[in-house]
Amino acid sequence: MATTPAVTKKFTFEEYLAYYDGTDTCYELVNGELIPVSLGTGQHGAIVGFLNNSFRDEIRHQKLDWTSQKMVIGVRSPRAGKWDTSRVLDVVVILLTQWRDLRNREAVIELNELPPLLVVEVVSESTKTVDYRAKRVEYNVLNIPEYWIVDPLTNKVTVFSLIDELYEPVEFVGTESIQSLTFPELRLTVEQVLSAED
């Protein structure tokens, strides 16, 4: 006897924003489906904290009207299907005015708003395909000027810079300084990032 596969409820973006299941679980919305976001390892948290602090220091040093935030801002992503997608970003750099606008509403950057200046995702075993493939395409379509993939699994950092509407990747390893168009004066090596203790 054949069994019928379970049907997963599809959520609209508005339903996603209002959804609460009584737990502290954070969800991304991917093609209308709720996908739980794992807490990540201690190393993941240390890298996210270190980069967020480094970006904030650089923003202060250069006196920029920007802010860096970790794991509190989402971005609505275009997908070919009819269902919505919204990603929760590990680290994001946005304009300070944009951050202030998000204070009194859901902290999700909409498709018709300015894209973030820079996004960082830290790879884990369960997210590597999404970080390298799906998010790369989504962030490119959103015209996010710079996307970093920090990969502790392969000990490298890949920086994707938006050039002529396409991402150009550059990989950095070991003691190489990570080159950033968003923060050209920032001096961080891959080793520093991967061995971060926050």
From TrEMBL:
Molecular functions (GO terms): endonuclease activity
Q: Which CDD domains does UniProt cross-reference here?
A: DUF820-like
Domain named Putative restriction endonuclease is located at: 13-191
In terms of superkingdom, the source organism counts as Bacteria
- The keyword NAD is annotated on this UniProt entry: no
- Protein name (database record): Uma2 family endonuclease
Q: Which Pfam families match?
A: Uma2
Tell me where the signal peptide lies: none
* Keywords recorded for this protein, A-Z: Endonuclease, Hydrolase, Nuclease
